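Researcher: Can you fold this with zinc ion in place?
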Amino acid sequence: MVPAILLKNATTVHLFPPAIRQVDLRIQSGHVIAVGKGLTPEPGEQVEDLAGRLVLPGLVNAHTHLYSALARGMSGPQEAPKNFLEILQKIWWKLDRALDEESIYYSALIGAIEAVKAGATTLVDHHASPNYISGSLKIIREALEQIGVRGVLCYEVTDRNGAAGREAGLRENQNFLENQTNSQFGALVGAHASFTLSDHSLRACAELAQQNNCGVHIHLAEDGCDAEISRRDFGRGDIVNRLAEAGMLSEKTILAHGIYLSEDDLKIIKSRRCWLMHNARSNMNNSVGYAPVQHFGERVSLGTDGFPTDMFEEARLAFFKGRDAKNGLGPADYLKFLSAGHQLCAELFGAPFGKIEPGAVADLIILDYPSPTPLTKENLAGHVLFGMKADHVAEVMIAGKFVLRNKTLIGIEIENIYQKSREVAAKLWKRLHTL
Ligand SMILES: [Zn+2]
């Protein structure tokens, strides 16, 4: 049996409902196996004194696009996009078409490195690379495996690159679903959005998900154009009903954004128990409006939608966006959203996430957080939103194994990777500008 790790004198923090305890933790075979005061070391056990450092469940980025990682600093189009559709056409749909094997790998690698350093232990990714579809998810998995972070992957099926592109996207999802052997990975069926998928294509995605007993991961009502174009091109502007009729709305399905939703839409989504992911920073950046996150119900978590994974920052920005919109939510609601990411993982991986108790999955982060004020369960939300930062994350354990120690990724030659990544990004940008 693998030797256990005993973490002495931890201050464990549960995000929601908030709880703080001073305890010792024993970790073995990927799980927390004991929690209590005064646990005594056993022979052969690795013992570490945390001296009161904070231990939190690892954070979850519930909707992202790792392929965006190499877009940082990329020059924009000559003529600035005037709306969301033009942002897609002039920037993101060019970037994804320029992706090749090397740039898919390096973007995933950089995205995973930055995520772990910021205390995220699971990435729910939505990938697109129309000129390198087959095998793209395997490349992302390899990059994430190298860093040790969990991933839930899918390929974005769309009609925007013709029938052959759609079929190749479906096949990539199917291949990944069928050849999924690493228990640190999950798989969904990816679909772009209602406005780039015909009824036939939506049904094909839903059927593939049903055959594999998984959900669909799709953008929904990120902009008003989702309904408008669905009406213009497919004769249907009622996008939630379209997804429902295609058989896509189940409790395993992830809907990202949900900005332009009516009360009836939300009623349907909630009755089907779908997940709704809020991406506040991305929504602000694309000027697409305010998501009515206060009406999203219980199954809501947060995603960065391609921005670097820093869930402390994302929660903070979501909170401020909500304050600005006077949405009535308070700091604790955003801890609830972060915590819902653990429930999502529990459902996707079929194991207890987000708890620090015997039997729970040992995805843990250790923070050096020098609090200038008392930290209690009553004021935890204030500390998380206004004090804690990615920079406080010192150690990260995923599936019971340390992957980050003293802010350094174990066995990863960061400088070489970043040097190579800059070269790969420069080539990617050059290709993109010829498209
Ligand atoms: Zn997205």
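Model: Folded with zinc ion in place. The chain has a mean pLDDT of 96.
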